[in-house]
Amino acid sequence: MLKGIAAAPGISIAKAFLLDSEEFVIQQRHIPEPELAEEIARFEEALIKTRSEILNIQKKITEEMEVEHAEIFNAHLLVLEDRMLIEEVIEHLKKEKVSVEYIFMEVLKKYMDIFSKIDDEYLRERIIDIGDVGKRVLKNLLGKQLETIKTQEEPVIVVAYNLSPSDTVTLHRKNITGFITDVGGRTSHTAIIARSLRIPAVVGLENATKKIKNSDLLILDGTEGTVIINPDKQTLKKYIEQQKKQEEFRKRLLKLKNLPCETLDGHRIELSANIEFPEEIPAVLQHGSEGIGLYRTEYFYMNRTDLPDEEEHFKSYKYVAQKMSPNPVIIRTLDLGGDKFVSQLNIPREMNPFLGWRAIRFCLARPEVFKVQLRAILRASHFGKLKIMYPMISGIEELKKANTILKEVKQELERKKIDFDEDIEVGAMIEIPSAALTCDILAKEVDFFSIGTNDLIQYSLAVDRANEKIAYLYEPAHPAVLRLIKNIIEVAHDNGIWAGMCGEMAGEPHFALLLLGLGLDEFSVSPIVVPAIKNVIRSVKLEDVREFVREALKLTSGKQIEEFTKKFLKEVVSY
Amino acid sequence: MTLIKKNITIKNKLGLHARPAAIFVQTANKFESEISIKKGNQEVNGKSIMGIMMLAAKKDSKIQLVADGQDAEDAIEELSSLLLSDIEPEQKGKR
């Protein structure tokens, strides 16, 4: 049995499908003689695709930066077109008859090895360039592999070293019943997406890709974070039963769908869902969510080499607004950077991406990109109840600047006589400690706060949420975090605005109790978690929960508070 | 068909590395002739950037340029003048 981090709940039983990815556990798949020509064609296609990608990047850089920087890509292109290299790959392919990505990497490695031994610093640095080109080609080769998985009929559990958010999205298909990765933490983007798609997942297994072989039968328990390879009959039977039980429980919770989200003593709490794609709307409605508290928009920018235009944004926003109307939908503006990159925005790789040029910082520096999205949101606001939320606000200056840009876009629409909701609500995500501590200042500029706990916790505790070694330090119930949250909620209420939470924390039943007692007005969670949180809220009296929180806050460590909270949950909520 | 060989000492400050090599390869690829470069007992394809970078020819290294084909003469002339000149101004410290 392998033990990892439980990333998305549920049990899945299916065969393994190994996927080669980023840091590369590349399979030596045998290629039969008659398929060699196809394999060569696949290689050439990947080269051509990579070439056009590099040309595109080069063009962008030439337009926006110095020509000199663009020139480095000439060397990249020459590597791609290098006859010696290509011929060597094809020759080896014919001889060894294994998958071309394996051979390509072997050949590249050989050259990189030779270069690394040459006593010349400048040349050794060029190894990075070759590696870059290699990765791009590999990505395109493996992109094809992703295609093959899509056409596969039998249900499978995908096993990979790592899955980028865009991989996870691409893999969103009916026959994928689970995700297993070597790296990643509970709050990595992949885990969040897996939860939202209701696909069980275990991450951070370290060497799953080495221990699991293609077509092994796997039991994946995303609730416990375990994976069993080729189980015996008895174990299999046990898990099939458990799977059935969980399904029944889920159905029972779903019956709450049409009941209001209120405490036993009659306090209404807003319960909404976090989504990434419009395709999730059916799941949102099916689970009885009252609105959308976080609509992530990074998806528009992923899996492509150009930027999305206003119509694309508009079409999706309008669709979501109409489908959810009259319930509100909070659209979070572009939140790229950190662990989410796209090449076409030319956000450079940084030493500290989470402290770097991302989200609102990027948008304020590139108002032309920002305005496209704002215009689309405003236009779509005519068709439903939309709200705008800025991510990564760290202080009042940013908030004012963002609002100024929004005002400009509004004026432009007015001039053009285009309909939009003039009173559209605007909110700030509070996910940086500086914002949490100065939210009394920020409150004057917005209609609501939404607490982003994933980042707030990682920034205030200085814990990288994807680092398995320190994952134990990532404590949502840490007194520091709770004090910040308490402050945000109190300040919001003092200023007559509401405070919600769209972070993962709100979706954990025991933490939900803490937040309820702290006075949180709105919970926005994965669509599938909505029934469980509604069950919690409908099981308690707000008075009792407030009393419990007063006690909890007297405790001194995150661990104590969490245990105390779990105990309370068991006492008051029945399953 | 002509085969021309020419011995050259590299004058470019950085030798024949990524960017100079890139310019060399681009130029070499304009010609129909087979182009190769010999250094000591190593011989590489002059139209291959990987090959040229493998040579790691620094400033003042002695190489032999070989062109084989109809436009060999033009090729040798243009490529050798490239190698004898500073292929590009100093770029050190920049990627």
Report on the structure:
The complex is a heterodimer of chains A (575) and B (95). In chain A, helix 7 links the parallel strand 5 and strand 6 (201-203). In chain A, 50% of the residues lie in helices and 13% in strands. Chain A is globular, with a radius of gyration of 25 Å. The model of chain A is unreliable at 21-25 (pLDDT under 50). With 575 residues, chain A is of the alpha/beta class. Chain A has an 8-stranded mixed sheet. An 8-stranded parallel β-barrel of chain A has the order 9-10-11-12-13-14-15-16, surrounded by 4 helices. In chain A, helix 19 packs across helix 20 and helix 19 packs across helix 22. Chain A has 22 helices and 16 strands. Helices cover 33% and strands 27% of the residues of chain B. With 95 residues, chain B is an alpha+beta fold. Chain B has a 4-stranded antiparallel sheet, covered by helices on one side. Chain B has one domain (2-84): HPr-like (Histidine-containing Protein, Chain: A). Chain B has helices spanning 18-28, 49-55, 72-84, and strands at 2-9, 34-39, 42-45, 62-69. The longest helix of chain B has 13 residues, at 72-84.
